[in-house]
Amino acid sequence: xxxxxxxxxxxxxxxxxxxxxxxxxxxxxxxxxxxxxxxxxxxxxxxxxxxxxxxxxxxxxxxxxxxxxxxxxxxxxxxxxxxxxxxxxxxxxxxxxxxxxxxxxxxxxxxxxxxxxxxxxxxxxxxxxxxxxxxxxxxxxxxxxxxxxxxxxxxxxxxxxxxxxxxxxxxxxxxxxxxxxxxxxxxxxxxxxxxxxxxxxxxxxxxxxxxxxxxxxxxxxxxxxxxxxxxxxxxxxxxxxxxxxxxxxxxxxxxxxxxxxxxxxxxxxxxxxxxxxxxxxxxxxxxxxxxxxxxxxxxxxxxxxxxxxxxxxxxxxxxxxxxxxxxxxxxxxxxxxxxxxxxxxxxxxxxxxxxxxxxxxxxxxxxxxxxxxxxxxxxxxxxxxxxxxxxxxxxxxxxxxxxxxxxxxxxxxxxxxxxxxxxxxxxxxxxxxxxxxxxxxxxxxxxxxxxxxxxxxxxxxxxxxxxxxxxxxxxxxxxxxxxxxxxxxxxxxxxxx
Length: 497
Known about the structure:
By secondary structure, the chain is an alpha+beta fold. The chain is built from 22 helices and 14 strands.
């Protein structure tokens, strides 16, 4: 057997001689597994030096396929994955990969038997993904590779030598797949959308969102697919439970804006909420441009300039191109005369209750009355009924609040008499409800001897109010009183406010 000679020729770089000898050996006995092995390693060595010559490389790949090696040749099949990855990197090393060439490479390997579920098969995917991710054949490529072959390390982000973090290849893959499933419009206005494929992939993507909460963008595309699949009547039922979990992510509100695209005010409120979320500025540039467009249409030029200046700063910092629409706005008179602010957050706050009510529309609103306000701690005590009362922080919802205000709120949770969390809160005047807890009190002030507090009829007067109104015992006085729960006596009473 010439195996030793073939190996020596191959290792010394005499590949043509090694090829001729291995080819002759195999042709003498096409069933000889050793002949196939000898030729396969020569073909591997030839492939390794042909990675920059696509025509010759694919021709050699065809020879490897013709060998029809069994799956037990794991070492060889791993090495073939490595050398194909090298060829793919040659194609994708430029700024814009040559789609035609990456397609040719894929077509040459898609019927090749390779060792799956291995480190080197993942390396092959990573190299091919870079060239295929913008291709309209990405789903075909991804289905051939099969995401079930990802290794545990494929779900971890990588750190480059310069310290920059790179998104995990698995996350990149699920994003690209979902992106290619979304509806596309042809130049003739035709919508292309494979609903069956999207429905099949959605549970898979939803599981990734659940299993890898550190991945941000799969959740975004999960919601986009939900939006694309559901009609307007039923879509929110599917979208809202997911959106509630991710309500602090700006893109949830951008998607909800799409869901309510027929209602301009709801879209505007959703954009306000999205831009009030804490997010890296470079991720908000597209949204700020949309918001600027709406603000300009409303002739809110100071706010529009603020959005554009923030957008411009982020794009410049990250060396992104400034869109033509933005430069056109910056050349207009209104932009030149508008006054920019550090942010529009104060402006957004006015619209946040509208947006949040969309997200929690399925949670019942409840009426309550403000019974006490601590302006230093931004806390208020409330009464919803004689069996439901407590307190919560109000600064997220209101800048100004006073005793006797009635509110509509959606409770997130809490314990009676204790701290509560809210989803939404708005001021809402309801005189019938208010009159259950407020009334006018007139009569003689009674201040016990040696005490700083007092009473009017059956209502308690706090020492601060005795001092504020300069009240004395026996004085006639009229004022508003509110129902209050006496913690010590465990009973309801009234107090002046």
